[in-house]
Specification:
The chain is mostly beta strands. The chain has a single domain, classed as Lipocalin. The chain has 2 helices and 12 strands. About 20% of the residues are buried.
């Protein structure tokens, strides 16, 4: 009996040793990109300022806690004029709503290192539930989460007044992310 218990303990040791808990977001190695269409032309941009809280145990993803704050005035569209325009009240209204906030409400394992994430995304005081697949890649004390989701800018009042129509700037926005976390 002792021999079987010892063997089971030794066999499970590598599984326990490889499990890690990630608690810090490394913003300098992470990236949030967005993609949209303007007048039929594909456009891209990034947010350079974001931070957040994470508590992700790779052995039990169901107990994960993630909250990410994206500073809307950190937008980089590749054009200084466009950057200045998009933080105005008609678009992000960054003065009144400086951050977009994502809070995960559940993370479900779908396959090895593949998850379905559900959470609340709040932009300009408008909150919507979003769900998307995410992939985890673990290397020495580092977890890299990648994924993509789509949103409708109209659901968040991004583009008000003359910009509330979708003939010049499309309603569909795709967000790609790479979030790097450490222990």
């Amino acid at each position: 009996m002792f021999k079987r218990t010892l063997t089971a303990a030794l066999l499970s040791f590598p599984l326990l040793a490889s499990a890690a808990t990630y608690t810090h977001i490394d913003s300098s190695k992470s990236q949030i990109q967005f993609h949209y269409e303007q007048m039929g032309v594909n456009m891209d941009g990034v947010f350079t300022g974001f931070n957040g809280n994470i508590h992700f145990d790779s052995a039990d993803a169901s107990k994960a806690k993630v909250q990410l704050h994206v500073q809307l005035n950190s937008v980089d569209t590749g054009s200084d004029d466009a950057d200045a325009e998009v933080i105005k009240p008609e678009w992000f209204n960054a003065a009144a709503h400086p951050d977009a906030v994502f809070t995960a409400t559940s993370i479900e394992v779908k396959a090895d290192n593949e998850f379905e994430v559900v959470g609340q995304l709040t932009i300009k005081g408008h909150e919507q539930e979003i769900r998307f697949p995410a992939t985890l890649n673990e290397t020495e004390n580092t977890a890299t989460f990648t994924g993509s989701f789509s949103l409708l800018r109209g659901d968040y009042a991004i583009g008000e007044g003359a910009w509330s129509k979708f003939d010049i700037v499309a309603n569909d926005i795709r967000v790609d992310f790479k979030i790097v976390a450490t222990e």
